[in-house]
Amino acid sequence: WVQEEAPDVLCLQETKCGVSAVPPEIRALPGLPHQFWASAEGRPGYSGVGLLAKTEPLNVTYGIGDPEHDADGRVVTAEFPSLFVVCAYVPNAGRGLVRLEPRLRFDAAFLAFLRRLDERKPVLLCGDLNVAHTEIDLCHPRANRASPGFTPQEREGFTRLLGAGFVDSFRHLYPEARGAFTFWTYLGGARARNVGWRLDYAVLSRRLLGALCDCKIRSTVAGSDHCPITALLAV
Asked: Which structural domain range is residue 98 located in?
């Protein structure tokens, strides 16, 4: 699928994979020779992201400059001539919301990081942001008001991101689209019944809207409990 899609940049989240353990077939993906991997320090099999690019970035950084969160390997940022591409795997608040407070601290630190980038050049944020922003973004909103990914605090964090000059590209283009989900639990045949959540986003600086061509949810692509999304920009 990746070879057919032929992306300029491929962002992967929750890789659970250290740099030395990246499979050789991923290393050898045609057209994506520049690869940058982050993984959790001392926690093999936890978290992790990868950013793969067709052309070599000007610069690559890891983390968001916050020691509480950077050890988890959740963010890789690649600078290109016209924009930053940020690949992110935002923490889950956890069963029973036991990690909600650290999640909210991450949200605040991550927003500050994105704003600093945005002061320099436009930003495209791609990743599993672990939040369904509005009721249209999950199948059963009423039953999930206290569930991780749909608490008022997490949703407000995403609202603050949008208020800081960023745009949810899919919802900008398709404001009324229903059943547009990117995650389905493996339990109960959820994917076949499209009982899902939209947790994966392409968020961009508002001044990039003129370059936005489309944002597609590739819901027929199998291989994970999430599906890929594709952002198309003319930059």
From this structure: 1-233
